[in-house]
Specification:
The protein has 387 residues and is α/β, with parallel strands linked by helices. It folds into two domains: 58 residues; 259 residues, Ribonucleoside hydrolase-like (Inosine-uridine Nucleoside N-ribohydrolase, Chain A). The chain is built from 15 helices and eleven strands.
């Protein structure tokens, strides 16, 4: 088998779980299992792709419904498109927050991303400032003036909801208790405000995955703090100290996951519209990382949090009692006490426990993102042929 054949074979086999899940949805609707198998086989064969393995597991799993709270942002955008492409997640809403960009631009960028993939997903605009702390400067030197690597996508004709982000979160979760999860990719202001609006949210949200915080590595905005936590330390302290199922995907973990130039080229070639966008938006971001001394690729922060949401098995976690420093020169520091402290009488005893990531299989994260984007492109082509 030549190199080109190996490449095609690997891409098809890597996308098999995505194709099988997609076929399951079609079968569940039509009930015509053999007809759907025959259609997919003909589609692949027509393109010269050898189908060695197709039906590994024919169990139908419902997607997990999720609201993504986000400040897009180059890496946020990759994370959102990754989530849109996944057969494990149903994104039922985006809520915007300041961080990589101001809230207004975050809202417009969320709408642009929905346009990009022609999705029908509501967007709710969030808070424009932290609860109490001073707002950090917007890092245009990292994400560009447009927040998307200065590729300047056209404005969307869509509009955000009249509801605030906090109201949208409360209304959606409380209408579907125990069924909706949250992914927080920026400062956690909107989620803290939602809790203030409806304290029962703590027992009604299915789970929360948030990206941010440092324990053993230096912060990117202070010696002890990451941008997502220092962006609103009071909100982070509230969210991470509430008694619910919350996992903090630390920057200690996400810095182990890097986007290489070769990965970007493959995604551009095989990831369809989303892959092309990720490639183009990442060039500005890549230059920033090179200028700051990160020469081999760049850290893939927010997509790693989505990868955790999809497949926890490629991560290790520990339970910790967490408080966030909310004033002084160490503001934004995540203090995560282990069992030696939270199980003993003292100030840490009785604090609700959160999970933190401690290790990651970085290559598997990047393969998961790549195969998911490619699987979505194959499904789109398959559906286009059937139409």
């Amino acid at each position: 088998m030549g190199n080109a054949s190996r490449d095609v074979f690997g891409r098809v086999i890597g996308a098999v779980p995505q194709m099988v899940h997609h076929m399951q949805k079609r079968v569940s609707t039509s009930g015509k299992i053999f007809e759907e198998i025959e259609k997919l086989t003909r589609f692949l064969a027509h393109r010269g792709w050898t189908v060695v393995f197709l039906l590994a597991a024919f169990s139908i799993d419902a997607k997990e419904r999720v609201i993504i709270d986000t400040d897009p942002g180059v890496d946020d955008s990759q994370a959102i498109l990754f989530a849109f492409a996944s057969d494990e997640i149903e994104v039922i809403g985006l809520t915007s927050i300041f961080g990589n960009v101001d809230t207004g631009l975050a809202t417009r960028n969320a709408l642009r991303l929905i346009d990009l993939v022609d999705a029908n997903i509501p967007v709710a605009s969030g808070s424009v400032r932290p609860l109490y702390a001073k707002k950090l400067p917007t890092p245009t030197f990292v994400h560009g003036e447009d927040g998307l690597g200065e590729i300047w996508l056209p404005e969307s004709s869509r509009a955000a909801l009249d509801l605030t982000a906090a109201e949208f979160i409360v209304d959606t979760v409380m209408s579907n208790p125990g069924e909706i999860s949250l992914i927080a990719l920026g400062p956690m202001t909107n989620i803290a405000l939602a809790l203030a609006l409806e304290p029962r949210l703590a027992t009604s949200v299915k789970r929360i995955v948030a990206m941010g915080g440092v324990l053993a590595v230096p912060g990117n905005v202070s010696p002890v703090a990451s941008a997502n936590i220092l962006g609103d330390p009071h909100a982070a302290d509230i969210v991470l100290g509430t008694n619910w199922d919350v996992t903090l995907v630390l920057a200690d973990t996400t810095r182990q996951v890097k986007v290489s130039d070769e990965w970007l080229e493959r995604v551009r070639k095989h990831g369809g519209i989303s892959g092309d966008f990720i490639y183009r938006a990442s060039q500005f971001y890549r230059k920033f990382y090179r200028s700051s001394g990160v020469l081999e690729g760049f850290y893939n922060h927010d997509p790693t949090a989505v990868a955790f949401f999809i497949d926890e098995s490629i991560f290790s976690t520990e339970k910790r009692a967490i408080r966030v420093v909310t004033d002084g020169m160490s503001i934004g520091d995540v203090v995560a006490a282990g069992p030696a402290h939270y199980k003993q009488p003292g100030p840490w005893y009785g604090i609700p426990l959160a999970s933190v990531t401690t290790a990651v299989e970085a290559d598997k994260v990047m393969r998961l993102i790549e195969s998911t984007l490619e699987g979505a492109e194959i499904r789109e082509n398959f559906d286009a042929v059937q139409r």
